[in-house]
Prior knowledge:
By secondary structure, this protein is an alpha/beta fold. It is built from 32 helices and 19 strands. The strands form 5 sheets. A 7-stranded parallel beta sheet has the order 5-6-4-7-8-3-9, sandwiched between helices.
Amino acid sequence: MDKSKAAADAVKLINQAKEDSNLQPLMIKAVCSFFDIMKGEELSPADRLFLHYLANQAGLPQYYYPMLNVGEYVDEEVTLQTFSNYINESSLIVGEGVMLHRYQKELLERFKRGQRNRIFLSASTSFGKTFLTYEIVRKMEYTNVAFIFPTLSLLSENLFKIHLLPEYKWVKDNYVIHTLSDKEEISERNLFIFTPERFLSFLDKNKEIQLDFVFVDEIYKLDNSFIIDEVAQENERDVAYRIALHELLKHPHVDSLLAGPYIALPTEDNQSSFKTFLDHYGFVVVNYNHYEIVKKREVEAFDKQAIEIDNTFHLTFTSDSKRGRLIQLVTQLLNRGENAIVYCSTKASTEKYAKILIDENEHIEDVDSEEVMRLTNHIDSLFANGRGAQWIVSKALKKGIGIHHGSVPKYIQQEIISLFNQNILKILICTTTITEGVNTTAKNVIVLSGKKGRKDLKKFDAQNIEGRAGRFMQHYQGRVFILDKKFADRMNEEDELLQHKFFDKNIDKKDVDIVLSDSNYLTIKQRNRKKLLEAIKESGIMPKACFEEFRTISYIDKIYLYNTIYSFSAKDHEKITELIKCYVGLKKSYLPGLELICQTIRPIIKNDKLLYLVENGNNQSSNCYLVGMISAFISKGFSGSVNYYIRKEGDVDKGVRRAADFVFNMLRYQVVKYFGLFNLLYKQFESTRKDVNVDEVNGIEALLLRLEYSADTRLGRRVSDIGASFNVVKYYDIKENNPDNSSIVVEHYNQLDDYEKYNITKINQIL
Length: 767
């Protein structure tokens, strides 16, 4: 665009937006466009004055300083407008070195002492929702605060921010940070950072906790149809989100911010059960969906041969295939020194396209980086017989390409994002995992599919993927190169409204939903079912504690499991006792005990993959597959599981994906949930049978902690949450278990590789 026209458009929209606030999003885009043109120019004093004015009028002084790299420049002549700029900027400063933009400040000012503050915020991905949340906590000086994030990766990211970045030092100085689901000593001021599942587990052990403020991120996950899965199936995470919200908001005094990106909001003509939920709990809706702080430029590149991006960038294609166009597009971006995220629909396709770029793009060269070499040397030795070197994640890293999906271990994901943000890796190939709050420096997003697995993307998903292009404080404009027409079609679809099962009378509900739903939102049949369930709970058929914990599992399934335990023989009890002794004493599996638990829980398992592992087994063994896999994990962690699957699959990439799916999804969530319920009911039954307090009954808690955290000690569990390899977690376990024996700690440390030692140095900054 012509510079003069861009300037005129920006000024015109600034003036119009003063009269009509609905024009503010367009005004921001116009100002953003002009700054994008000017960022490479040599600026005269007049240019600086004008740009300073535009940034402040747009409500984003960050566009001028520090994004424009004007250094320590001070206006030579302080005009009335310049003085006004300085006053405006000072009003947005909320802490040492912390400045909000106008729209963050507007939301911050909605939180006032002496009133209940409940806000639902839907905003663009560049808005800075989580950053703003910390400033709300600082302003309001809350005592007990809970942050609920959808993934452990986001939990880890926030831990690193709090402990390592100077602008978050006040959090560490004022709050005790909790991430574990253990029974906790609650201090005077606390910040609890959990996933929904972790929060519910924590609540089971800490029922007395009273919160002042709750932040729930990615709120759309309470609706199963919005959860990003590769397969169209019922996902239990929506149940955990709904139940966690119910518990978090049931006390009327609790302030709250619920947030999500690009969530379509109901109108008078088009209501939803989510809006009913918001009204029920007294939430005010704030809509900043159209406030793109970083402008997005869509480029449809699936059929054109030549595309003019701007005056300095002209794309050319000679290939008609998606594969060929990807190679040519990546080449042209690399030649400009730019980076890019490549979106793929499945884990397998991320790996496929990484192989294509490695094999067919001559501009992809070996990376000469100490950081990459340290990480790849670690990965290469992870699995038996040096198979780590055959894993596509390692091969891609050596060529400057990062692969990011749910089957890459969390600590490796963290390193890949860090290397990409340092510009050591230029290409990041990913699935929808990149949309879940992962912050990158990507200016460009290349879209290869309009699907997530076998499911079509929603418009909401497509907007979220586009939102990863361009990062505030680094870019004025992000580009989205679309290589699949179906994705462009998704962007033009009608918005779908979020729904909340507890507040929808016309939707089928399971028992876990019926129990917590208000009778006003139940059918007659569901109301009768609720009365029956309440009567069952009060009947004394089993201790009340059995009903009140593990809320994502139905009463009927709990009663079945309790009755099965009731019918255990003396030999069965011996197997459980031996399992507890074996693990607590020797940290070893006792296969008959594991097999007994597996077959006891089998009839109540709802997850098809887990059910298959429990119902089937090796013909040479009397145990199901799950027993062997748990045993392999206990003895050798993630690497042991990978070796098991590589042998089974005969393919390294497929073996790692299957092992990771088992460890990070099946084991950590499904197995821990069902084994945890077994443990609760077994201990309650033994407590009643022996007429002792339940705390005096030994259970499989130690085993459950290993399965969930890959750790045996509190220190090891903290390290696991921060992000560490199995050997590093084991090192911290040894350290906690041997406080007076430094030689054994040093001995284990010396066995670690260079990456693991570097990882310990990084983790120690937090510990």
